[in-house]
Structures are given as structure tokens and as C-alpha cells.
């Protein structure tokens, strides 16, 4: 094998390696809970428009009829809310209420939020969160 072929193979391997690392970094946060310090607080009219509870935490998730993974989020959230009756659950159809999705900068489905009793956004998850992740995010709000 000539040295030019070795260089071509080395360049291809390096390109695939870089593409793998970039793809991994882009999908790393999918489905992970993120702190809400970067999101603005909602005012009272927004809280009532979204249907958030004022007596305890609320799990709010955006879905649509055409979204396959949204059914998985619904099952997980229903399971967690059944175990924690003081947690309210609100589901918003993004096609029916696009203004709510714009207000919270929802760019992909499914997206799940956790708000405290004062209507402050505490966590946000893109993708399908696990029940354990939701419970761990809700526990400090229930104390």
C-alpha cells in the first residue's frame, strides 16, 4: 500500500472520529433535566393561562397528536403524579396552543417543565425523562 493511501485512510478515520464526537456532544443533553436559572419568571397572567397550580408543584409537558414519544412522557408523568398526589399535571397540545409554546421557548417535542407553587420554572427536560429524574426534581419542592 502506498503512502498516499495510508494518508487517505488516516484522514477518513479522523473525519469519522470528529463527526462522532460532534454528534455525541449535540445529543448529550437530550432528555436530561436542566436547572431553570436561565429562564425568566412567569407573571400571574401567564401562570393562570398555563393552568399551573398555586398550591404545589406542577409538571407541565407539551405534546401533539403526531408526536410518538409524547405518549411515553404522558405515561411517566401520570405514574409520578399518581405517586405524588400533591403534584399537579398539565398537558398542553402544542398545535392547539402555539402561543404557550412560544412563551416557554419550546422548540422540540416532547418538552417537560416543572414549576414550583409560585410559578417559577425549576426544571426543564427535552425528550422523555425517566420517572426517577422527575421524582428527584420534585422532592425538594415538596419539602
From TrEMBL:
GO terms for biological process: cell redox homeostasis. Residues 7-143 form the Thioredoxin domain. It comes from the Bacteria. CDD domains: TRX_family. The keyword Chloroplast does not apply. PROSITE patterns: THIOREDOXIN_1, THIOREDOXIN_2. GO terms for molecular function: protein-disulfide reductase activity. Keywords: Disulfide bond, Electron transport, Membrane, Redox-active center, Transmembrane, Transmembrane helix, Transport. The chain crosses the membrane at residues 6-26. One of its GO terms (cellular component) is cytosol. The keyword Transmembrane helix applies. InterPro entries: Thioredoxin-like_sf, Thioredoxin_CS, Thioredoxin_domain. Participates in various redox reactions through the reversible oxidation of its active center dithiol to a disulfide and catalyzes dithiol-disulfide exchange reactions. Belongs to the thioredoxin family. This is Thioredoxin domain-containing protein.
Amino acid at each position: 500500500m502506498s503512502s498516499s493511501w495510508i494518508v487517505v485512510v488516516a484522514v477518513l478515520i479522523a473525519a469519522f472520529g470528529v463527526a462522532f464526537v460532534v454528534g455525541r456532544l449535540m445529543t448529550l443533553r437530550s432528555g436530561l433535566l436542566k436547572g431553570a436559572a436561565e429562564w425568566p419568571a412567569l407573571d400571574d397572567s401567564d401562570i393562570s393561562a398555563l393552568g399551573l397550580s398555586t398550591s404545589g408543584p406542577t409538571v407541565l409537558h407539551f405534546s401533539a397528536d403526531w408526536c410518538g414519544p409524547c405518549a411515553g412522557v404522558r405515561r411517566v408523568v401520570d405514574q409520578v403524579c399518581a405517586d405524588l398526589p400533591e403534584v399537579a399535571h398539565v398537558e398542553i397540545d402544542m398545535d392547539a396552543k402555539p402561543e404557550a409554546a412560544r412563551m416557554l421557548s419550546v422548540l422540540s417535542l416532547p418538552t417537560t417543565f416543572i414549576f414550583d407553587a409560585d410559578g417559577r420554572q425549576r426544571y426543564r427536560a427535552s425528550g422523555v425523562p425517566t420517572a426517577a429524574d422527575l421524582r428527584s426534581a420534585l422532592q425538594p419542592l415538596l419539602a
